[in-house]
Amino acid sequence: MADTLAGTPDTAPSVPEYPMPRDAGCPLAPPPALTPLRDDQPLGKARIWNGATPWLITRHADQRALLTDPRVSNDDHEPDFPHVNAHRAAIAPFTPKLITNTDAPEHTRLRRSVNGPFLVKRIEAMRPAVQKLVDDLIDDMLAGPDPADLLTALALPLPSLVIAELLGVPYKDHAVFQENSNRVLDSSLSAEEAQASGRALHQYLDTLFHEKLENPDDDVLSEMAGRVKAGEMTHEEAVSMGVAMLIAGHETTATMISLGTLALLLHPDQLALLRESDDPKFVAGAVDELLRYLSIVHSGLRRVAKEDIEIGDQVIRKGDGLLFDLQAANWDPRAFPESERLDLSRPARQHNAFGYGPHQCLGQNLARLELQVVYGTLYKRVPTLSLAAPIEQLAFNHTGTTYGVKCLPVRW
Amino acid sequence: MRVELDEPKCVASGQCVMASPDVFDQRDEDGVAILLEEEPGEELLDDVREAVAICPAAAIRLVEE
């Protein structure tokens, strides 16, 4: 919005609704309305579920500048914070301070207290175990009926097994945490339904956390139990962090496995490069390019301005909400030439798929590890892998935090 | 060229270690970045530049001597 409109209500029809619909014919591309906004009106506004009109930030450079700006806050207790849905708005006042809703220096203390398990060397040490899980899941899939659903055969169980093992959550309970964490993030459910699932997860983790306090094991919940005993974090912070990791740890990676495989099957030349490469650096680069291209976290990062911020010829006022559409930035041709092309050989490491700034995804190194192992193994082990249904028949999930397929039928 | 690490800003994401493992490491207890080489050789500078570019906290700078 130009300054001349300041003070007038944003009811003009030019304010688009957000999130925006995709083109059914191009299911992997960003919503078509985003591209002209990014190229012609990069600091515009958009209308969200409650009628509020936060700024919509679409360019890669603007996102990087604002997401590292200390005047941009992640405190969702602020009255004008542009929440993602009614459920998140309803629970915000009751949510304890976490890495997901605080700013420096509080955020720095909390983040450092949960970072240990995600150290690069500790994640790298998990590679043989992750490789074994992937090999076993592929063995099971190949021994079962052909065609199969890649989601239930590999994409969902792998990250669930990994995050359950890391946290110390018994995998036998995976139905409880998989089902409830999907429901917490599903914007098509009522706030009450989502809250009931959130409470169920919280109670489950709270009970388990009490057991870890009594009988610590070699896992992240026990490590947090140690920090609680040492007075470095509160019981409530630890349980809430456990819930957040459990939720964040599997739907996202599962979606990258299934949607990434779909994208590769639709780009056979790129799939061939990956299948024929034995270079771990190439595989790592391919993971980042698929993260960029798919940008599955599609509901926009949310922030609020703590002070006035001048950017370009605009002023973001104190209290204004901000939305960052990650795929718009990751398809910004100023940052990634020919951005609409999936090109596994391009340098893609500077994408914003994990967000950017101090709140960038805590689990990104774990996600990269799982994806490197899957992408580096699946297509070599199953070179004849193909789609078992026409793409027009695939159902896409438009209402979760991540954008993906509900089922991916494959044959070999 | 000299590397400067603004430790209080570090959020311990480990991106510098992934980009430039010869120049950066992480503290075991909380993952905060450690500078192994303050004046890395020419052959390491591309990796360091990548670390500067991808650090989510914008906590690393490469400065001309």
TrEMBL record, chain A:
Pfam families: p450. Gene3D superfamilies: Cytochrome P450 (1.10.630.10). Signal peptide: none annotated. GO terms for molecular function: heme binding; iron ion binding; monooxygenase activity; oxidoreductase activity, acting on paired donors, with incorporation or reduction of molecular oxygen. It comes from the Bacteria. The keyword rRNA-binding does not apply. Keywords: Heme, Iron, Metal-binding, Monooxygenase, Oxidoreductase. InterPro entries: Cyt_P450 (IPR001128), Cyt_P450_B (IPR002397), Cyt_P450_CS (IPR017972), Cyt_P450_sf (IPR036396). Residues 1-29 are annotated as: Disordered. Coiled coil: none annotated. Belongs to the cytochrome P450 family. PANTHER family: CYTOCHROME P450 YJIB-RELATED (PTHR46696:SF1), P450, PUTATIVE (EUROFUNG)-RELATED (PTHR46696). This is Cytochrome P450. It comes from Streptomyces phyllanthi.
From TrEMBL, chain B:
One of its GO terms (molecular function) is 3 iron, 4 sulfur cluster binding. PROSITE patterns: 4FE4S_FER_2 (PS51379). Its cofactor is [3Fe-4S] cluster. Residues 1-29 form the 4Fe-4S ferredoxin-type domain. Keywords: 3Fe-4S, Electron transport, Iron, Iron-sulfur, Metal-binding, Transport. InterPro entries: 3Fe4S_ferredoxin, 4Fe4S_Fe-S-bd, Fe-S_cluster_ET. It comes from the Bacteria. Ferredoxins are iron-sulfur proteins that transfer electrons in a wide variety of metabolic reactions. This is Ferredoxin. It comes from Streptomyces phyllanthi.
